[in-house]
């Protein structure tokens, strides 16, 4: 379905999360939740159990993710708009059909929802091959947003790419207005459950790559894009879409 680009610089970046103050404010550390709640610890334990069941490595010292009470939910319409914008960018990355994308932007009223980097990509008549590949991988963000909006029952496995044809059809069949109105945003608790899981999966995928031990159950390209979308959903570090990091 898509060209893989494992050498992309975006996939090589990582901050190593630690205990020191030098990472405060730019990455999640143990200083953010020095006294984790029972709910945070239970979420961590559930994620680690799933990852171990898949035969993937776990780093026990990775911090807990934020507590439910520390997260301010995004508005349903905001998430729906982000889903539409990123999907149209992915469509351009895959199809390279500028006329189609321009029409869809108009049909869905999505121009105002593009981030600065998305706008630059959409307006660029000759994007590079790396840009086309990177934006095509954003279909995995669409996958997360459709799940978060109640249009998918689960995220599936971190080794299985999103069903692009089926998922783009959800937007196409509903149209912009109905897509925004009929969505049902999931709870903060559900979002944090998946954020915690993909936070730890991201570490596992990088560890496997660095050690030269690829595992078919962990596709790093899939994981990093889903992690990106989940971080945006929980307002990780209050980063704007273009600046969302997926550090571990």
> Which structural class do you get from the secondary structure elements?
mainly alpha
Q: What is the strand content?
A: under 5%
Quickly count the helices: 10
Shape verdict: globular
| E-strand count | 0
* Average pLDDT for all residues: 91
* Uncertain parts: 1-16
* Helix share bin: 40-55%
Termini separation: 28 Å
CA-atom Rg in angstroms: 18 Å
Largest sheet: none
Order of helices and strands: HHHHHHHHHH
Structure characterization notes:
The chain is an all-alpha fold and 248 residues long. It has 10 helices and no strands. The chain has helices at 9-12, 38-53, 76-95, 98-107, 116-123, 129-136, 139-148, 164-182, 188-210, 220-233. It starts with 8 loop residues before the first helix and ends in a 15-residue tail after the last helix.
Which SSEs are present, and which pair or pack?
Layout: H1 9-12, H2 38-53, H3 76-95, H4 98-107, H5 116-123, H6 129-136, H7 139-148, H8 164-182, H9 188-210, H10 220-233
Helix pairs in contact: 2-9, 3-4, 3-6, 3-7, 3-8, 7-10, 9-10
Short description:
The chain has 248 residues and is mainly alpha-helical. Helices cover 53% and strands 0% of the residues. It contains ten helices and no strands.
Structural features:
248 residues, disordered N terminus, mainly alpha, 10 helices
């Amino acid at each position: 379905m898509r060209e893989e680009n494992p050498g992309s610089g975006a996939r090589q970046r990582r901050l190593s999360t630690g205990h020191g103050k030098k990472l405060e404010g730019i990455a999640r550390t143990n200083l953010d939740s020095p006294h984790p709640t029972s709910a945070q610890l239970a979420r961590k334990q559930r994620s680690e159990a799933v990852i171990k069941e898949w035969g993937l490595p776990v780093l026990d010292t990775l911090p807990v993710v934020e507590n439910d009470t520390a997260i301010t939910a995004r508005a349903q319409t905001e998430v729906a708009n982000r889903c539409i914008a990123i999907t149209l960018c992915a469509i351009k990355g895959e199809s390279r059909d500028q006329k189609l994308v321009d029409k869809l932007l108009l049909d869905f009223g999505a121009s105002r929802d593009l981030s600065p980097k998305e706008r630059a990509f959409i307006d660029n008549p000759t994007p590079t091959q790396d840009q086309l590949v990177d934006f095509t991988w954003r279909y995995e963000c669409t996958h997360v947003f459709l799940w978060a909006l109640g249009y998918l029952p689960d995220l599936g496995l971190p080794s299985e790419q999103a069903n692009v044809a089926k998922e783009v059809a959800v937007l196409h069949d509903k149209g912009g207005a109905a897509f925004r109105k009929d969505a049902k945003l999931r709870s903060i608790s559900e979002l944090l459950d998946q954020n915690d899981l993909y936070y730890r999966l991201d570490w596992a995928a990088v560890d496997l790559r660095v050690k030269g031990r690829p595992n078919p159950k962990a596709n790093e390209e899939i994981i990093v894009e889903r992690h990106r979308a989940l971080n945006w959903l929980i307002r990780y570090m209050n980063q704007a879409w273009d600046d969302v990091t997926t550090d571990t």
